[in-house]
Amino acid sequence: MASCYRLKINQQWYQNNCGHTTIWNFMIDNIPITRHGGDKQIPKFYFDKNYIVLLPTRDEWATKNVLLSDDIVCFTDGSKLTSNGASGASVFIQTTEEEYIFPLGRLCTVFQPEVYAFMSCAKLCTVSSKDNLSIAICSDSQAALKAMASVNALQS
Questions:
Q1: Comma-separated ranges of CATH 3.30.420.10 domains in the chain
Q2: Residue 77 · residue 139 · CB < 8 Å
Q3: 45-154 adopts what CATH topology?
Q4: pTM, entire model
């Protein structure tokens, strides 16, 4: 059953309702949590990125020596409340003074809302601008920024 579940969440399970492929139906009937799947994904490698990640030093932040000369400047944040487990992401586009809030429920980790905020910001900015504009996305999550800088990015 563990192999069946692993193959299913990796989108490598082929169902034909005969033989060993009936295991999945058995799991759904007897182990309800398997219906929810998981958040594990097969890694894809992207070597041609059209963005860069800059991590200013503490001194640069302290002396306010961080220059943003981009066409669009955004700020993102993601959080999870310890009191009730609710999580969410937010995007503020400074250039147009637009604010977006995305409730994400109780099943997220602390990291996931941060990355969701990045992706939502990038999508909002690229959809709204028709030109090839430069976009700065500012975040307080060093872990999420380093994940975005990694060559190994996960598929959506």
A1: 45-154
A2: yes
A3: Nucleotidyltransferase; domain 5 (3.30.420)
A4: 0.65
